[in-house]
Each structure stands twice: as C-alpha cells, then as structure tokens.
Amino acid sequence: MVNHFDNSFAGTKQPDTKHGVILYVEDVNVSFDGFKALNNLNLYIGDGELRCLIGANGAGKTTLMDVITGKTRPDTGTVHFGQQIDLLKLDEAEIANAGIGRKFQKPTVFENLTVFENIELSLSGCKSVWSSLFHKLNGEQQDRIIEILHIIGLVAERFYPASRLSHGQKQWLEIGMLLASEPKLLLVDEPVAGMTPHETERTAELLTSLAGKHSVVVVEHDMAFVRSIAKTVTVLHQGSVLAEGSMRNIQMNPEVIRVYLGEESAPEQPSTKPSVITELVKS
Ligand SMILES: Nc1ncnc2c1ncn2[C@@H]1O[C@H](COP(=O)(O)OP(=O)(O)OP(=O)(O)O)[C@@H](O)[C@H]1O
After folding, report:
1. Predicted-complex ipTM score
2. The pLDDT of residue 50 is above 80
3. In this protein, which residues make up the domain named ABC transporter (predicted)?
4. What domains appear along the chain, each with residue ranges and CATH number?
5. How many whole angstroms separate alpha carbon 161 and alpha carbon 46?
6. Is there an atom of ligand 1 within 6 Å of 58 CB?
C-alpha cells in the first residue's frame, strides 16, 4: 500500500483534509484474548460529513470509537486524522487536543454548576474547575459561550443549574461542552437513547446543523433516528464493514439482508440479531 501519510504529528496543527477526508482507518485489527473485535476494518470519514454507524450488539462500534480516541490500541492497522496526523502515536489527551471530541451515551455534566458555567469550564485553556470559574472571561469567550448556547438551544436555561435540565437537555449541554473545545471531528454514542420524541427530533436538527463545520460520527441503534439524519450509513458486522451507503441502499443490500434476516444470524450469540437492525431491513 502506498504510504500517503508522510509527516508525523506536530503539535496543534489542523488536520490536512485537502483530499476531503478527515479520518482514515485502514486495515485495523483488534483482538481481545483471541477474539477479533475489529477485523481488517477500513473506514473513511469525509470532512464535514455526518455519518451514522450501525450494527448489532458486539459488532465493534465501541471498539472502533476506542481506537480512534486512543483508548484501545489496535494490533495492526493505521489510523490518521487528516493526511498527516498519526493517531496511533498520540495518547488520549493529545487526540482530544488534536480536535477529536467524544460524547459517551450517559451525559456527564456538572450538576451543581449552571449551564453557562458548564460550557465555560470546557472552553479551551481553562484547566480546572477552580481556575476556570475564577478566571474572568474576555468578550470573545463570552460571545463564544452565547453562540454555543444558541446552537444547543439552551439560551433560556443558561443560569439554571444543570441538575434542573431534562435528560435531553443534558445531552445537548454535553454536546455544547464538546463544541467549546472546537473539535473538527465529533464522535457521538447513542445520543437519543432515553429521549422523548420531541427531544429526539431536536437532536436530529442539532447534529445535522453541526455537520459541515464539524465532521460527526453517530453510533445509534434507533433506526428511525438514523433514517432522519443520515446521508451515509456504515453497517458494522463482526468487526468489519458489511455495507455502506444511503439508508435505502443499506435496506436493500443483499449482504445486510442475509446477515440480519438470513442464515448467518449467529445462533450461539442471539444478541447479534437485534430487532432494531431486523426492523431496518424489514421496513
Ligand atoms: N475489553 C474487552 N475485553 C474483551 N472483550 C471485549 C472487550 N471490549 C469489547 N470486547 C468484545 O468485543 C466485541 C465488540 O464489542 P463492542 O463493544 O465494540 O461492540 P458494539 O458494537 O459497541 O456493541 P454494543 O452495541 O452492544 O455497544 C464484543 O464481542 C465484546 O464482548
């Protein structure tokens, strides 16, 4: 394979996306005690793209996110952010500083701080709760917080303690906290789990609005939600990409139909045939 990644990571440079790709995951393998969680996985995320990643329980979605964010090191393969930043040479904090933000399923906001203060804490350069809250914000920082509050739809709630927010609002706040560090790539794990239909709809609008300026990868089991936001969907199965394309193409893909409705439904692991994906190909 031609090595088109000729420079190593150098400080805080922007990812080189001149070929329109922000994330290159190539031939990645991860094994846990001999079990292949990722199996020669290849994935490319376009600059500014909103991509949905779906797959049954155990398909490898979380492991893939862990590899991208430096939590898990692959046995073999390469992972680059833009053309030049080799993520396998960086630790988790350096990867976050390079511009990759991750939001886990469960919101982790500071319940006793206000919505505004939660975002303030996350602004680049603020190192600790103590120094952040006693650090006087300059006009630019205040404007940025207000801008984020508008993006996440929590302007009216900005002086509420986060504990007063609904589950959905906490998820948006956490997305706002991620935005404060100006990530180029956002990895979002099951954003609408536990949300009301109205919150789900607003989350779809929020994530869609972030694409363009940011690249967004959403892992989600809610197929109606995926259908509402995704232009391109990647289906993972047993640690590899099974299919990729529009939702319509995925639903009609013979491999997807065979795996999720057909003979290859792994009887020894019943959870690998989840109803959500089955719903997808049936609908
Ligand atoms: N630290 C670990 N040690 C051993 N096995 C692991 C470890 N992490 C993941 N696995 C296994 O690797 C496989 C892939 O797991 P992973 O969590 O990536 O799947 P997933 O697609 O995120 O599933 P889910 O939708 O349930 O979150 C599973 O069979 C899981 O049991």
Report:
1. 0.95
2. yes
3. 23-263
4. 22-109+165-282 (3.40.50.300)
5. 37
6. yes
